[in-house]
Amino acid sequence: MASAAQYDLILAGGGLANGLIAWRLHTLRPDLRILLLEASERIGGNHTWSFHDGDLTPEQHAWIAPVVARRWPRYDVVFPDYARTLGSGYASVTSDAFARVIGAALGPSLRTGVRIEALSPTTVTLAGGEVLHARAVIDGRGVRASDRLALGYQTFLGQEVRLAAPHGLTAPIIMDASVEQQGGYRFVYTLPFDAHTLLIEDTHYVDTGAWEPERLRANIAEYARARGWQIMEVLREEHGSLPIVLAGDFDAYWRELDGQPCAGLRAGLFHSTTGYSLPHAVRLAERIASFSEFSAPRLFAAIRDEAQQEWRAQRFFRLLNRMLFLAGSPDKRWRVMGRFYRLSPRLIAHFYAGRLRLRDKARILSGKPPVPLVAAFAAARKTHPRQIRNSE
Predict the structure, then answer these.
(1) Which of the residues 151, 177, 277, 375 has an alpha carbon 20 to 30 A from that of 291?
(2) Cα 150 to Cα 388: distance, rounded to the nearest angstrom
């Protein structure tokens, strides 16, 4: 290193994963010189991150509690042929709570409104030429494009709205797939924050990351009308396109990173089927906070190890994704999830937590498949991105 390190750790990008890492380190290791950099005027962007009770340990629930905006004791799902309530707790972290709590805790260890021109495992170059040095730099700036992965996409647009009258919901509806499918697996996701305030999110599992915001806004307006809800005000709007992993070459992807520690979606630390990433971010923050010293090679190796464990554990989820995306008509994709939600609550909890047991997997695959059998077998065999691209 050309000059002495100014920091023990710099975190590039103030999203969920890096924000939790910085917060956990500041809480447990206040002696460390850490710096969180964010291009926007606040960390956390404009997002809602949710999770199920069974995704975290009691100790993890306790330490993230200050950023949790709302908890519910159950949630609902709706499909064209049935509806169900599951008595599993559900919670959401909003970017407002995230920015308020973590921003206040970090104080001068947070710099917002700064644009990163370049980074390396030990340096960050800002717009204007300022160079920051650290023992290690973690890149948490979102998904990294790579032909080493074959992806579908979960595209969504959500509006937090205030209604003219109480909506009547007592629990989230995390999937309402009774709506028109529109060329992919579509569902509406609804979080009741108070009697008059809802987040209504129109979500599509589709083959490309392209999306049409005006169509999704119209879908939300139509859904509200169908439920008898009069929207008085749109308080905010969020949107995104999450990767749904069908297949990949893990080793090649990590070779491309060339020793650069990374976190969050960039490290592949998310649920391959649902896109949920908060439990993975919590676990990574705890792992990094346990280190006695920092260096870029050690961080890279540890994060790669974490990602590799998840990659191996999620092999079955990638199989389900290929069946969802490759084995049937896009408008019939809902049948895969509809069949899944008829299974036991315990199995469903294991699914969301990414902890399926052998008997859980056998139960999911047993019986008549919700997609054509020949197509399902063909999709199951396509375990490399090249096989999927060649079949398109």
Answers:
(1) 277
(2) 7
- Looking at the fold, whether 263 and 131 belong to one and the same domain comes out as yes
Predicted pLDDT at 376: 73
Question: What are the residues whose beta carbons fall under 8 Å from the beta carbon of 248, sequence distance 6 or more?
Answer: 148, 149, 150, 311, 318, 385
Is the residue at 203 inside a domain? yes
Instruction: Convert the pLDDT of each residue in 149-198 to its tens digit.
Output: 999 999 999 999 999 999 999 999 999 999 999 988 999 999 999 999 99
Residue 83 lies in a domain: no
What are 73-101's pLDDT values in tens digits? 999 999 999 999 999 999 999 999 999 99
Listed residue (152, 118, 363, 85) closest to 260, CA to CA:
118
Mean pLDDT of the chain, nearest integer: 93
Does the pTM surpass 0.85? The reply is yes
My answer on whether 44 and 188 are in the same domain is: no
Percentage of residues in the chain having pLDDT higher than 90: 82
Cβ contact 140:12 at 8 Å: yes
The DSSP annotation for 120-157 comes to: -SSEEEETTS-EEEEEEEEE-SS----TTEEEEEEEEE
Pair of tokens at residue 360? 């859980």
Q: Which domain holds residue 235?
A: 149-245
Whether residue 120 is found in the same domain as residue 227: no
Q: Same domain for 276 and 321?
A: no
Q: Does residue 153 contact residue 207 with C-beta atoms inside 8 Å?
A: yes
Q: Are residues 140 and 29 in the same domain?
A: yes
Provide the β-strand partners of residue 7. 134
**In a 3-state reduction of DSSP, which class is residue 253?**
helix
* The residue to which tokens 């529109």 are assigned: 182
Dump strand ranges (E) for the chain: 7-12, 34-38, 48-52, 68-72, 75-79, 82-86, 90-94, 110-112, 116-119, 123-126, 131-139, 149-163, 173-176, 185-194, 197-206, 231-248
Same domain for 131 and 267? Answer: yes
Q: Look up residue 262 and give its DSSP letter.
A: B
Q: How many residues does the chain have?
A: 392
